[in-house]
Amino acid sequence: MGSVGNGWPRGGGEIGELLRHPAFDAVGLGPVESWPASLKHIAEMVLNSRQPKFVAWGSDLAFLYNDAYVSVFPERHPAALGRPFRDVWADIWEQFSPIVASTLEGRPQLFKELLIPMRRDGRTEDTWFTFSYTPLRDDDGTIAGILCATLDVTDQVAAKRGEKLALEELRAKSEALAVVNRAGAAITVEPDVERLTQIVVDAGVTLTGAEFGAFFYNVDDGDGGSYMLYALSGVDRKNFEKFPMPRNTKVFEPTFSGEGIVRSDDILLDPRYGQNEPHAGMPKGHLPVRSYLAVPVKSRDGSVIGGLFFGHGAPGRFSRAAEASLVSLAGQSAVAIDNIRLLRAAKVEIDQRRAMEDQLRKLNEMLEVRVAAEIADRQQAEAALQQSQKMESIGKLTGGVAHDFNNLLQVISGNLQLLGKDVAENSRAKERISNALAAVERGSRLASQLLAFGRRQPLEPKVINIGRLVIGMDDMLRRALGEEIEVETVVSGGLWNTFADPVQIENALLNLAINSRDAMNGVGKLTIEVGNAFLDETYSRTHPEVKAGQYVVLAVTDTGSGMTQEVKEQAFEPFFSTKPEGKGTGLGLSMVYGFVKQSGGHVKIYSEIGEGTTVKLYLARSFRSEDRATAADTVPATGGTETILVAEDDEGVRATVIEMLSDLGYYVLKAKDAQSALTVIESGAHIDLLFTDVVMPGPLRSPELARMARQRLPDIAVLYTSGYTENSIVHGGRLDPGLELLSKPYTREDLARKIRQVLANRPQRRQAEADTPASNSRHSDPGGPGTAGKLKLLLVEDDAFIRMDTAEILQDLGYDVIEADSGEQGVDILGQASIDIIVVDVGLPGISGSAFAAKAREVLPSVGLVFATGDSDLPDADRFSGSVLLTKPYNSTTLDRAVKTAVQQRPRA
């Protein structure tokens, strides 16, 4: 739960913004900062929900709702926010007061489609809601409020009511029609159109004495025609269909148009009847009859349903009485067909309604399932978010702790190593120093595990074959585990390569092996297997953090006591351990988990009580060739004479590393931050290597410092150091390509070896520059051997002890030294002697060192200047061209080099 100052509540849309406003104050609750944690938690859940919800809390039941709830009462928003429940819903309080009281007594409430006369737009209207009331408890378990989740179902209820009325009306019509049909002739009760028309045709044949009858139904036949044969009586259908109803003849047009009856008492019979060929003089396709009668069949709305057609082979067979009977029969059939159509339409509508209701029911069931799934997904996502935030917070915490912790360890380690030289003849002191250094190493491992868990360690991945790496660790594992542990290593054939940090894989395997040894109480069998694996989409669905694909799997199996389900769920948490107190830090598996996740892999534990444990590490397959092993560790741990600029904000670390580098023979310049280091670089001083801490205060970041340094000094080498790299030179958990890093704490040997390695790999100087006299003489003696005495040097230093020691060193180096204890005395000397080099303290009393240097350059424009200071900045470097910075404390080597450099860089007369 975030604090108000940090933006609580997270998200929440418009309502969230209102709650975050400093002026917001809920009745009876006070400012948001003072709300109990239980209320903050439930309020944040409600604000970020997409379902209309509200919380009523406290003695006055302060009303808090989310954006989705605004549509329930838009005219009351935002005045209702934080007001008493009773005031917000005064118009329905009488109806809801018992519900609220029952909920506050601890009884949850659920109402489906409850009618609520609600005041909206200045009038009361009927609304229906489905909602639940849930009692809420405060931090001490007392019921303090109500949570409501609601849904406006007014439209659905109205729709169902309309459907019910429509069905009742249709049923009434059907019953009325049934009564009418039962009261009429038998023909009108026939429920089937086909059967009814057949009865009508058969009856028409009987009534009219026709030899055959037919019903032509008035519908589109799909082939351009408008009439189709529907029923037939008194003649073979196959024979009749040879002479179908003419498509284009106008003989029966009055019948099909509904204008009247068509009859003929005497026409010629086609002698070729049955051969489907018209006789000369007869209309093409005419019926094979001598007399016929055609009566239209009309619906009650006047539209033509079709026509009844009757024929006979003899002329004059249809009487007027038969015609009237046929007309009556056609009318009854039309009524019956209309009724059947209505019933069919009603049935179709009812079936459609039932289908819609069934679809709605299935939709509701599906919706319930989807809601349940969404709730489960939301809970899972919230849990994952909380875990992610927790891991992120711990990661930041461990990173910060590791940074400070490693700086302290570096100071301790460096001074112990320097002290070891001073007590080289004292065996007891050397043993104690060795023990202290061992403790520093343990502390360093602890910090490394913290960084690994927080996924902050700078990985240096390579394309490797894990099988070869594991086989190479066999002897070391056997020694570490003891003789009572049987170790079996199985490497599958055709093993794929993977892209990972080999050192971290070794650490992970060693951690797992030691955990297994402890689980087996020192006796048992450890099996290490390396093989190929494919994690498919099915596995990925049950493990959302895993991407389906090809992996190299490293499995470690023991025959130990196994884990319970609870222990498995907590196994990767930091500082969780089942070992006795003092037997473990609880960071081993956390380190393994952090490393694998940082490498884009997956970790899985399989374990049962009494059956042992298997831990599998999945690392993504690499399709590149295996990288060659580097020979960095074979570089000798020696010193050198190059110039190194140290940029380090921690004073203790800075002093220690300067002394270590000086002890190794290097000429060292120092800076307290990146900006100060840039000033030294821009002074024109010769620098071979920039040794910079990654995390330093100030606006200028270390990577930017390195970039600017290379712009000014193309051949400069850069070595980073840090106990915690953040994201400045490490991205995706991996050190940026082409960069060199020495992690804190480091030993004198580590420092010496890394310095030589980085210097050996730096860009080579241009051959032309290397051949110039100035370049070749950069580190040469200014006057050659035995000639330093020709240079007269003025030393201006107010501290008597520093002045005496420095003068003695300079005299031992062969310089002619004149001493001055103040700037004023130095000015007097300038007018009395010819001076080649001036070594001046910057912080002089009276006339400052920079003011004295300005006067010296006025008198002696080509004099060389060396500024001695405890700071890392040159005073006004642009003003004093060619000047050199000598950082305190300095030794004879650094002092000699500074003077020689000043001689080389002094302005020419």
Sum this structure up briefly:
With 909 residues, this protein is of the alpha/beta class. It has 26 helices and 29 strands.
How much of the polypeptide forms β-strand, as a percent range? 15-25%
Helix content: 40-55%
**Assembly of the depicted chains:** single chain
Mean pLDDT level: 77
How many helices? 26
What structural class results from the helix and strand content? alpha/beta
What is the end-to-end distance?
71 Å
Instruction: Find the count of extended strands (DSSP E, 2+ residues).
Output: 29
Q: Point out poorly predicted stretches.
A: 1-6, 172-184, 269-285, 764-789
Q: Biggest sheet, in brief?
A: 7 strands, mixed
User: Which outline best applies?
Assistant: elongated
What value does the Rg take, in angstroms?
Answer: 50 Å
Describe the 3D structure.
Helices cover 42% and strands 20% of the residues. It is an alpha/beta fold. The strands form six sheets. Strands 11, 12, 13, 14, 15, 16 and 17 form a seven-stranded mixed β-sheet that branches. Strands 2-1-5-4-3 form a five-stranded antiparallel β-sheet, with helices on both faces. Strands 7-6-10-9-8 form a five-stranded antiparallel β-sheet. β4 (123-137) and β5 form a beta hairpin. α6 (193-208) runs antiparallel to α9 (320-422), α9 (320-422) packs across α17 (651-663) and α24 runs parallel beside α25. The radius of gyration is 50 Å and the shape is elongated. Its EC number is 2.7.13.3. The modification 4-aspartylphosphate is found at residues 693, 841. Residues 762-789 are annotated as: Disordered. It catalyses: ATP + protein L-histidine = ADP + protein N-phospho-L-histidine. Residues 400-623 form the Histidine kinase domain.
